């Protein structure tokens, strides 16, 4: 690819040496902006239509220019790809579709040379059904010691033909699959993702070794997949109502958020702390309350946990304020910073969520929500493409969909492909610079020519330039973002409006559909939509967020 650079080339392009340019900051994660790269859809270097590690490396300058602090890479390990790589067959190998270990090593070095830290995914709740342990377990037969690394059980009912309990898979259907020899095995996700038994000592040993492998390669931390699911309630009790479990649910369940998971996270913290760093762990955990979620970030556990309550919050000022207040209170009670996130590879993109059928309104709200998020104290996660204002693609033909839940629920669920469309970089036609061939593993909408990085660069009204300006200001003004810069104070504001101050800084959010006049809180420095102010009063546009210097 013409834009591909070597690590040395990248470094000289940025004016830095090939040495790591990552700053040695003790609490770097406390206010870090971390960009999620869904590797399969970021950039394709070899023309097979699938994003890969070399593709990511070639596009690092975009991330450096955007101004993020770190990159989180979704799984690129050897995998049959039954669930987009969240079904790992070899935790120490790169899947050939994404490159090889040398590419991973090069990518980490090139990112460091640009001052970007690298976080990788680890998937400890389940393996692939092609993992050597699971193959061994299947071959060994019922009651064999190899089966003890997973949850194998005899069935219930006549001839054991009913599943051992009533748990349902997050992806639809029973959470149990029967093997030809009559035993059943547990999979909270797809049948190709058997759940590991974390009571087995070899499981913990193996994952400690896997973490060390990637830490030795130089990664700065891990995003821990299903960090709330590794321990199941003793005896695997029935839930008693047969309802399908959802990953984003908040009700107590016997397979999520069990107290035992915290022992695992404590041991991982000790491991992370044994490396120069700091290297961090971020939990993908769903817990019934903000207080339960905060347990994952106690001082001797993980550094961060995704705050999905913020992501799930509707476009409603009062509801947003409640989520912000409760999130800050819960994490500060354990001395941790809060995280904020609006989108990821599992949910409908927030442009579309907020728009509810109205594209321009959704985009206006998404831009405003981004400024709100980036003004809050703590760490923010961006999902690739949100800096371009990408909407969800809702009209994908069934035959191109890959989400395993789509087929397990007969199309009622499993629509996650719509947020995983390959990124548009440049040009007027698909694949919009995604790769050197005309291919992309999911089709891109033909109308994305105006949304490419190239088309938005230099346009002061574009969403990309809004994100760039916001991240630059966030670095310059500690009152933005840093949880250590001082308190967030809510100021009186009319219904539908949020106004808060931080040291030297104020933020207004107007969630109403009409403009609103207010006494001007200061000097406007950035706004998601044009504000009119005469210095004394301000006319806040509908669905907008504005940053003010006091
Ligand atoms: C990941 C999903 C994945 C699931 C099973 C999730 O939380 O984000 O993409 O399907 O875990 O590994």
Q: Regions with pLDDT < 50 over 5+ consecutive residues?
A: 1-18
**Average pLDDT across residues?**
93
Q: Termini distance? A: 47 Å
Taking Cα atoms only, what radius of gyration do you get, to the nearest Å?
23 Å
Q: What's the CATH architecture of the largest domain?
A: Alpha-Beta Barrel
Name the strands of the widest sheet in spatial order: 11-10-9-5-2-1-13-12
Percent helix range: 25-40%
**Would you tell me the structural class of the helices and strands?**
alpha/beta
Text of the CATH class of the largest domain: Alpha Beta
Cofactors and ligands present? beta-D-glucopyranose
What keyword list fits this structure?
globular; 550 residues; Oligo-1,6-glucosidase, domain 2; Immunoglobulin-like; binds beta-D-glucopyranose; alpha/beta; disordered N terminus; TIM Barrel; five-stranded antiparallel sheet; 3 domains; 15 helices
